[in-house]
Design a protein that fits this description.
This protein is an alpha+beta fold and about 1300 residues long. The protein is about 30% helix and about 20% strand. About 40% of the residues are buried.
């Protein structure tokens, strides 16, 4: 400021600061010149009506600069100069240009004789000290040996104030250049010797600074962070103790300093005493350091202990707004005694390792380490938010708030709104801004006043200043009934309804007189944009005028061009931001912009809950009681709010119920609070709540669930769920698009409800045939009884929770039979796996079940099977028969409640005393019926297995009696001294058929299988057995007991060879026109597929389900198909067929019934179109669906319950590389069409060859045995689809690893 600037009129000065609106207030307070304003403080500016912090800061910084550069007005008494004191060697020296004669007095007198602190800021008796961030005051020069701060604009000093200071030592590594403008001017600074805290006689040189609030000392004058900070308010006495030393006595401890000479010491004492006495003489002034006692906790965004590299002990760290504070401990934090703080506007946070992260500034890198990875994530997030807060620019907000109506939200009236809709020209609060976003960018474009800097051009700011909330609401809110208006305390649903009515429907707007006349509206708009009447333009535009209407002027075809030609910058800005805006429409439906449009019920609940900070990762560790904070919580108007206590009116945070995606009921005592539950939101955040009362926690759970679960899934609310939420899934034919459904996990059962409210058959997770994660942990695949469900992970946090919960529920959860993983027939998967392996590899093993395996291998195998039996594959060579047998025995011996149960075991033992065999068998049957279903099924499977074992007693030496000796004590869990237990097992094996009601057909089949196995064993012992062969049941012409054939299936056998094998056994001669083929028959689908003559049989057997089988019969249509293929022209087939999807697991599909579709079958693709396509046009049209032919399996026939329109149809299965399955049905109009389509399918899939040109006269000879592979036992092949597919993959790698079920 030029010389004499102190006499500048305050009106001119405020105008230069762009703060003309405060001129009247200043003049009313008798402040006519800048010099009159020299003693203003932050509080006095507030009393003058300067309410915006940015405006107060701008005024105080202007005053500071004015009085650094300008002398006082003429006639003002100058402070007397004092005699300079010679500088000592340890005193910081000024530049060479500054001589001693230029030094100012180091203890200046104040003009008019006022005390020193009064000169820094005269305070009225009613003055209330600042709550946070006091602003810079007038800089006072120091003289003599004390150095005065230089020009702040060139040499900013280190931070001076922060909430809390402590007599604590900062690490020596805390160094750096000056950082920020001081919040209080330095009164005195210089070098002093300081006595260490330990009382050593060795003094340390320190750079000491004194300002109006604190006495601080540093390692050097260049340090940014002090080693100690002593609040002036805590100084009780300053006294000389001789030898150039003086003592500063505080409430906490004493500090001893030593000056270079007595004069320097006396000056320090006099200055400190004056500052301390004047502070005590004033009203108790709270500095920022003292605020921590009662408000720091509320201001903190995050607080807790962290390790900081360079410190032996943890520091208490607080993240508050745009700063990070360091304290020695939590007690100092509560007392307001701190170490230093870090300005986050120059900070950057980076994760280093699992628990560590760095806070980097230009002056130092702070390397922190948290107690856990989850804690680290919370700290990093809190500091990143602090950086965002620090970097936000309030300049735009202050300029827009200069208009009084813009200081309050245009919708609810909340003060200091920092968001805006740039096309509607309204300033709004954060809560209303969230609801504005839900209206869509066609209605409102929401931007931040503080963060979206690039948006705020000078024209847009001027537009908001001229337009303002008042003008906007004169149009939008001209007719708002008091009953429909909202307030700052209104809930989210109430806000949403009001904003939809206000802006989307235009319910309350002031209608333009031309409303409804489009032509007149457009003409009026063209006239309005050439003037400065923005209100008219607004009314026309939002009453239906088109922003792109034709003006009739070729040189200016649009209203925007007219405004540009007329020089109306603000009109241009308004039109530009509304180029894509949609006019309000009363008939528009009030949509929630959610996947569903039904309003959720309004549930009300309140009470105290314990809560932890929100998390961004799954909870991996138990939360202790000290990690929970007691909060008053309310559930009202679709918002779950939590407050510091039940007296607060402003919530600490809110969760909208429509954003909740999952609710989890944790087991009791899962954390330090007895009952806890988790809430997951769409923003991928996790909230943990708790209560000591399980009943109260259950009430909260039910209330929250009712508030966010869609009415279509309200049936799930009656369940005692562990996890409830909405997920995206895929299934059926349309796997490209996921749909939303509601899921509830109850124990080991997963309940499902589709979008249409149809509740489907629950999934029994313990009976899943397959449970796997595909892709990059993004799809969870569940397969149960040929039903497949693909759950997608769109939100990482809750998806990981679902995966973990489903995997846990699908595993074994205890030591009883009912808690194990089960097969379809209710047999524990562990038992099924062991029985299958022993049947395959150990039927003839001598001493099977009597010889013990290795204890360590048995233990590890049992643990693996109990963890997840689905993942365990018992392989010959890797697992020994005796180890597996020992595992099965140990499982039954350690079984909780036993196989026969403690309730019924004595009755089984008692039954052995019955002498009448029929009575005994009858008693056994009654006791069998009394067992739980899983126990009954397991007992039958085990006795069936032992029955087969004893059939090979000639080789394995395990007769019925020997097996009873082994299994009696095992199953009854006795010491073996009582033979009754063995007698029960012996009776069960001997009377297996009668007790378990095995019919003749089942018995004959088992006997045939045993006979076949014995034959194969004989062949194996004679060296004629081919390694890798298996036994399969094949039927001739139809499925009957008398047509069964048990055939050995080598790995190389083709369908043609199998056909000849069956015909040779029945002495059937193939004639010239006989087209005998092997068919795969699917009884469930009522469909069949002829195998190509070159197909390998073994892989097909592995893919067969329990409802499929192989049959050899004549293919009656083969001759006609061969004739068609020989006579047709071209290699494509196209035409109309009737099409229907198979409904997926949830009962969803295209629709009921068949629909006409146009198909094109080429050599590689099958394509589906909705309309008929002709060669002359439309060939570039994209098909609705297409599938690679190589992945299709085509079966003849459609099941009757689908009511196909004709009897000539296909069933088509498709499986892609990710094992995602689709199924659909096709029907032809005639039998000839069916043959032609089927022939084309077979030709395309098999390279053009449907039938061999010449039949061999005899079956192809079996290949010779490979002595390197050895022999393995042959068993009947059976199993579920998943196991078959896995077996095929294993067989492709090594035939010896192939396993299968009996």
């Amino acid at each position: 400021m030029a010389e004499g600037g102190g006499s500048l009129p305050v009106a001119a000065w405020l105008s230069a600061l762009h703060l003309d609106q405060y001129v009247e207030s200043f003049q009313q307070s008798e402040l006519w010149s800048v010099w009159d304003c020299r003693a203003l403080t932050d509080e006095e500016l507030t009393r003058l009506g300067v309410l915006l912090p940015g405006h107060r800061r701008r005024i105080l910084l202007g005053l500071q600069k004015a009085f650094v550069e300008a002398p006082p007005p003429a006639g003002t008494q100058q402070p007397p100069a004092s005699k300079p004191v010679p500088m000592k060697r340890h005193i910081f020296r000024l530049s060479a240009a500054t001589g001693p004669e230029q030094l100012e007095p180091r203890c200046p007198s104040v003009p008019g004789g006022t005390p020193l602190l009064d000169m820094l800021g005269s305070l009225s008796p009613s003055w209330d000290p600042p709550a946070l961030n006091p602003l810079p005051r007038l800089l006072i020069p120091s003289g003599g040996s004390s150095w005065s701060d230089r020009d702040l604009s060139l040499h900013p000093s280190a931070p001076d104030t922060f909430p809390g200071s402590s007599p604590s030592t900062l690490s020596d590594s805390m160094e750096g250049t000056s950082a920020t403008t001081p919040l209080s001017p330095t009164i005195r600074a210089g070098w002093l010797d300081k006595n260490p805290p330990q009382g050593s006689y060795i003094y340390q040189k320190r750079w000491v600074k004194l300002d109006a609030d604190y006495l601080r000392y540093f390692d050097s004058e260049k340090d940014t962070y002090s080693k100690r900070l002593i609040p002036v308010s805590s100084i009780s006495r300053v006294s000389s103790i001789g030898d150039q030393k003086f003592e500063v006595v505080t409430n906490n401890r004493n500090f001893v300093f030593r000056a270079e000479n007595d004069a320097d010491r006396n000056e320090w004492i006099r200055t400190l005493q004056e500052i301390a006495e004047e502070r005590k003489g004033k009203a108790p002034e709270r500095t920022l350091m003292s605020l921590a006692t009662d408000s720091a906790t509320e201001l903190a965004n995050k607080s807790g202990f962290l390790e900081l590299r360079g410190f032996k002990h943890k520091l208490f760290v607080v993240v508050s707004e745009d700063k990070v504070f360091l304290y020695k401990n939590a007690e100092d934090y509560q007392l307001g005694i701190g170490i230093t703080y870090i300005e986050m506007n120059v900070g950057n946070v980076k994760e280093v390792d699992r628990r560590g992260f760095d806070l980097t500034t230009p002056y130092r890198i702070f390397s922190f380490s948290a107690d856990s990875e989850q804690e680290k994530e919370e700290w990093v997030e809190a500091m990143q938010q602090s950086i965002t807060e620090a970097l936000s620019n309030s300049e735009v907000a202050e300029r827009i708030w200069a208009v009084e109506s813009n200081r309050f939200c245009a919708d609810c009236g909340s003060p200091k709104p920092d968001w805006a809709s740039i096309n509607l020209c309204v300033v709004i609060c954060k809560r209303c801004a969230g609801e504005h976003r839900g209206l869509g960018p066609g209605i409102t474009k929401v931007r931040s006043l503080k963060m979206d800097r690039k948006v705020w051009t000078e024209e847009l700011i001027e537009l908001f200043q001229q337009f303002g909330n008042m003008m906007a609401n004169q149009f939008w809110a001209a007719n708002v009934p008091p009953s429909e208006a909202i307030s700052p305390s209104s809930g989210s649903q109430e806000r949403r309804r009001f904003l939809i009515a206000k802006y989307r429907e235009g319910k309350y707007r002031h209608y333009h007189p031309l409303f409804g006349n489009q032509e007149e509206l457009n003409r009026a708009l063209c006239a309005a944009v050439t003037t400065s009447d923005l209100a008219e333009t607004q009314a026309l535009l939002f009453c239906g005028a088109s922003v792109t209407c034709d003006t009739g002027d070729p040189q200016c075809p649009t209203p925007l061009a007219l405004a540009e030609r007329s020089g109306q910058r603000l009109q241009m800005e308004f039109l530009l931001h509304n180029k894509t805006s949609e006019p309000p429409r009363l008939e528009m439906v009030c949509s929630e912009e959610k996947p569903y449009s039904v309003h959720l019920p309004s549930i009300t609940h309140n009470g105290f809950l314990y809560k932890t900070p929100s998390m961004v990762k799954p909870i991996s560790e138990r939360k202790g009681p000290e990690e929970f904070s007691r909060r008053w919580c309310t559930l009202q108007d679709g918002v779950l709010s939590y407050y510091e206590n039940n007296r607060n009116t402003v919530p600490n945070g809110e969760i909208r119920v429509e954003e909740i995606v999952c609710l989890v009921n944790n087991p009791l005592h899962a954390h330090g609070i007895e009952s806890t539950f988790e809430v997951y939101t769409e923003a991928d955040r996790l909230y943990l709540f708790g209560l000591e009362s399980p009943d109260s926690a259950r009430e909260w759970l039910k209330s929250i669930a009712k508030s966010f679960v869609h009415p279509c899934a309200e049936g799930l609310l009656a369940l005692d769920f562990e996890r409830l939420g909405r997920l995206h899934y895929k299934g059926g034919l349309t796997l490209e698009h996921a749909q939303e459904g509601w899921f509830a996990l109850v124990g080991s059962t997963l309940h499902v409800c589709s979008e249409d409210g149809c509740r489907q058959e629950p999934l029994q997770l313990r009976k899943l045939q397959e449970l796997s994660i595909q892709g990059d942990h993004e799809v969870l695949v569940l397969v149960e009884r040929r039903r497949t469900l693909y759950i997608q992970g769109e939100r990482k946090l809750d998806f990981l929770g679902w995966v973990h919960a489903i995997q846990k529920a699908a595993g074994s959860s205890g030591d009883t039979l009912s808690e194990q993983q089960l097969t379809e027939s209710d047999v524990p998967l562990l038992v099924d796996r062991c029985i299958d392996y022993i049947t395959q590899c150990g039927l003839t093993s001598e001493g099977i079940y009597r010889k013990s395996g290795q204890n360590s291998k048995t233990t590890s195998l049992l643990e693996a099977l109990q963890r997840d039996a689905r993942r365990v594959r018992l392989k010959e060579g890797e697992h020994q028969v005796d180890d597996v047998a020992n595992t099965l025995k140990r499982f039954f011996r350690d079984l909780g409640d036993g196989l026969f149960t403690r309730r019924w075991a004595p009755d089984w033992l008692w039954a052995t005393a019955l002498e009448d065999e029929e009575a005994k068998v009858g008693e056994y049957r009654q006791l069998l019926a009394a067992l739980p279903p899983v126990n009954r099924a397991t007992l039958k499977a085990l006795i069936n297995h032992l029955f087969r074992i004893q059939c090979f007693s000639g080789e394995n030496q395990m007769t019925t009696h020997n097996l009873a000796i082994v299994f009696g004590p095992t199953l009854f869990q006795t010491d073996g001294k009582d033979y009754k237990a063995g007698r029960v097992v012996e009776d069960l094996i001997s009377h297996y058929v009668e007790i378990f009601n095995v019919n003749d057909q089942e018995m004959k089949k088992q006997q045939d299988e045993i006979t076949a196995i014995m034959k194969m064993r004989e062949a194996s012992s004679s060296g004629t057995q081919q390694a890798g062969d298996f036994i399969c049941t094949v039927y001739l012409e139809e499925k009957k007991t008398e047509t069964e054939q048990h055939v050995k299936i080598p790995a190389t056998m083709t369908a043609e060879e199998l056909t000849f094998e069956i015909l040779d056994r029945r002495k059937i001669v193939m004639k010239e026109k006989d087209y005998w083929s092997c068919f795969e028959v699917n009884e469930r689908e009522e469909a069949e597929r002829p195998l190509h003559y070159s197909e390998k049989v073994l892989p097909i057997l592995h893919c067969l389900g329990t409802e499929s089988y192989l049959v050899v019969k004549k293919q009656m249509s083969m001759e006609n198909m061969l004739i068609y293929l020989a006579s047709r022209v071209g290699d494509c087939k196209h035409g109309m067929m009737k099409f229907r999807e198979e409904r997926n697991l949830l009962g969803l599909g295209l629709s009921t019934g068949f629909h006409d579709r146009y198909f094109i079958l080429s050599h590689s693709w099958l394509r589906l179109y909705k309309e008929v396509r002709q060669r002359g046009w439309g060939w570039s049209h994209k098909p609705e669906k297409e599938w690679p032919v190589r992945n299709l399996k085509v079966y003849l026939g459609v099941k009757k319950k689908l009511r196909p329109p004709t009897c000539w149809g296909f069933t088509v299965f498709y499986e892609n590389e990710k094992h995602e399955k689709q199924q659909w049905y096709l029907c032809c109009d005639t039998q000839a069409d069916l043959r032609e389509w089927f022939a084309t399918f077979l030709q395309v899939q098999n390279g053009g060859s449907l039938w061999p040109l010449e039949h061999p006269k005899m079956r192809v000879a079996q290949p010779q045995q490979d002595a390197r592979l050895g022999n393995i036992s042959l068993i009947p092949l059976r199993g579920n689809e998943s196991e078959m597919r896995n077996s095929v993959a294993a067989f492709a790698t090594d035939p010896l690893t192939l396993l299968r079920n009996v």
